[in-house]
Amino acid sequence: MAVVSVSLCMLAGIFLICEIARKATPRLLSGKRRDCGVYAAEIISTIQLCACAHELKLLSEDAPEIALSLTYVVSVMHALTFRGATGNPTATLERYWCDSLDGVCALRRTACQFAASVAAGVAMRRAWAFGFSDLHARHERAGFACTSPIANVHLLEAVAVELACAFVVHAAVTFTRDVEEKYRVHAVAAVITTVVYAGGSTTGAVFNPALAFSAQFPCSGSTFAKNGLVYWLGPVLGIACSLLLFNKVILAFTTKSPSHKDQNLHAVKRKKKRN
């Protein structure tokens, strides 16, 4: 319980520090620099996301059930505090595909997310070095080493798992867009927790390229190329499949086509105009 208590304090501290940073950002960025607020929000939110994921990943070694339960709570908190930021390059790519962002803005946001993911990893290693719990102390003595979950997993299987995770989460977000926010965040968090439970033992169920770059790429047992295919290509394909299915295929089938009677009526009108 001491280990869990320390991890809870760490998570609470991460949320508190990031929330203070969000409150301070508008005051620090005034005048012409106000346009940088969206990028600052991405940096803060990505640091929050990655730092919490690092702590939960470490906690799962000693208390996997508690770590899984906290995944749900943390997912809800992320949704309530991000305020328009995504912390996920695939979500930024989706906005670009849907013409919500221009290419330059999307590239800048993605760069901020990857830079923030690296900063979060460094910050968490510094925090663990204080040895607040036995878990942190053991991790520090091991040189913060970790083993890649895809070390002994076939490449295609790992890509398929990350693709499926991204697809399912994006589908949940799509289907709940019209749901009231206070219910929507819990529904999406429940789906994320289920996905982590189902795919966590295979790939870690990251479905976020920036988070994977921070949490999985430094681990031994896998190459950079394999990590890139699994944790970058997999989620991108998952988002692409979801967009194609729900925005193109299903939309095409659900769009009402003119009835046979209406078609005949239009044909009669065209004949009259010709005469």
TrEMBL record:
<keyword id="KW-0472">Membrane</keyword>
<comment type="similarity">
    <text>Belongs to the MIP/aquaporin (TC 1.A.8) family. AQP11/AQP12 subfamily.</text>
</comment>
<keyword id="KW-0813">Transport</keyword>
<dbReference type="InterPro" id="IPR000425">
    <property type="entry name" value="MIP"/>
</dbReference>
<keyword id="KW-0732">Signal</keyword>
<keyword id="KW-1133">Transmembrane helix</keyword>
<keyword id="KW-0812">Transmembrane</keyword>
<dbReference type="InterPro" id="IPR023271">
    <property type="entry name" value="Aquaporin-like"/>
</dbReference>
<protein>
    <recommendedName>
        <fullName>Aquaporin</fullName>
    </recommendedName>
</protein>
<feature type="transmembrane region" description="Helical">
    <location>
        <begin position="229"/>
        <end position="251"/>
    </location>
</feature>
<dbReference type="GO" id="GO:0015267">
    <property type="term" value="F:channel activity"/>
</dbReference>
<dbReference type="Pfam" id="PF00230">
    <property type="entry name" value="MIP"/>
</dbReference>
<feature type="signal peptide">
    <location>
        <begin position="1"/>
        <end position="26"/>
    </location>
</feature>
<dbReference type="GO" id="GO:0005737">
    <property type="term" value="C:cytoplasm"/>
</dbReference>
<dbReference type="InterPro" id="IPR016697">
    <property type="entry name" value="Aquaporin_11/12"/>
</dbReference>
<dbReference type="GO" id="GO:0016020">
    <property type="term" value="C:membrane"/>
</dbReference>
<dbReference type="InterPro" id="IPR051883">
    <property type="entry name" value="AQP11/12_channel"/>
</dbReference>
